């Protein structure tokens, strides 16, 4: 999602060897990269840190290894910002300093440098903190406060910080979704104008990216993905879908 909270993944692997089950169980902090796709090739849909691994013997013959992971969880939870800036500190420099602090716990700075250019406080238009500013607390919370005060949104996607202008999509091109290009069913709009659609797992279906619906249904136009939930199983039928939640741009 674009909420700023760590994205989550739960992956179940059937009948790993005893050696591999043992090796995974010993890992305290282990990176996880998960990719999926179709004939055109696979795309990474999750990258994060393993938080918990559990091995279960289901019926004497089937072993299930459940892996739970979260995206950028260490940087999100454990990075503290003890920073102080004098009068006239540029807003963009403050954002870059907070990102640098979080990078010490393995988080990529993503598009921070580009997004920080010309950042200004919303409402007053000032691109500096006139009286200075200081932070002493959880870096991710302080980052979110500053970024939101400039009319932007902060989130972590695939191990890196992503900053977007509020309501604006990332990237220049939109993924085209039709009933002939991966859309499973017609998108549905609720009373608040939020669109929900189910499609096959395709590249670039990520929070913040842009999609375009076309077809014989009522919901057409360009939208920004605010949340995406992937579901797939190689043992439970040919189901590899992405449920996306969007808002019109």
Write up this protein.
By secondary structure, the chain is an alpha+beta fold. 17% of the residues lie in helices and 45% in strands. The chain is built from 5 helices and 16 strands. The chain has helices at 18-25, 73-78, 91-103, 112-115, 139-149; strands at 8-14, 31-38, 41-57, 63-70, 80-85, 89-90, 128-129, 133-138, 152-157, 160-165, 170-177, 188-189, 195-200, 209-213, 221-233, 239-248. The strands form 5 sheets. A 6-stranded mixed β-sheet has the order 11-14-15-16-13-12, with no helix packed on it. α3 packs antiparallel against α5 (139-149). The chain is flat and about 65 Å long.
Write the layout of secondary structure elements.
Layout: E1 8-14, H1 18-25, E2 31-38, E3 41-57, E4 63-70, H2 73-78, E5 80-85, E6 89-90, H3 91-103, H4 112-115, E7 128-129, E8 133-138, H5 139-149, E9 152-157, E10 160-165, E11 170-177, E12 188-189, E13 195-200, E14 209-213, E15 221-233, E16 239-248
Parallel strand pairs: 11-14
Antiparallel strand pairs: 1-4, 2-3, 3-4, 5-8, 6-7, 9-10, 12-13, 13-16, 14-15, 15-16
Helix pairs in contact: 3-5
Summed up, what is this model?
By secondary structure, the chain is an alpha+beta fold.
Descriptive labels:
249 residues, alpha+beta, six-stranded mixed sheet, flat
């Amino acid at each position: 999602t674009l909420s700023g909270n760590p994205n989550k993944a739960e992956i179940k692997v059937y009948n790993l060897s005893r050696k591999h089950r043992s090796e995974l169980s010993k890992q305290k902090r282990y990176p996880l990269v998960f990719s999926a796709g179709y004939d055109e090739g696979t795309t990474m849909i999750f990258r994060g840190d393993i938080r918990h691994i559990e091995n279960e013997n289901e019926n004497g013959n089937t072993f299930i290894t459940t892996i739970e992971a979260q995206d950028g969880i260490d940087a999100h939870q454990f990075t503290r910002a003890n920073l102080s800036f004098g009068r006239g500190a540029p807003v963009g420099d403050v954002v870059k300093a907070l990102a640098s602090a979080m990078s010490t716990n393995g988080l990529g700075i993503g598009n921070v440098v580009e997004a920080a250019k010309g950042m200004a406080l919303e409402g007053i238009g000032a691109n500096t903190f006139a009286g200075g500013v200081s932070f002493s607390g959880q870096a991710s919370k302080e980052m979110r406060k500053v970024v939101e005060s400039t009319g932007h949104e902060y989130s972590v996607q695939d191990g890196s910080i992503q900053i977007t202008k509020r309501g604006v999509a990332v990237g220049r091109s939109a993924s085209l979704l039709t009933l002939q290009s991966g859309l499973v069913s017609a998108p549905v709009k609720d009373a608040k104008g939020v669109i929900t659609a189910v499609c096959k797992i395709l590249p670039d279906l990520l929070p913040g990216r842009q999609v375009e619906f076309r077809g014989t249904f009522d919901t057409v136009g360009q939208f920004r993905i605010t949340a995406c939930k992937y579901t797939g199983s190689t043992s439970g039928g040919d189901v590899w879908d992405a449920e996306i939640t969007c808002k019109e741009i």
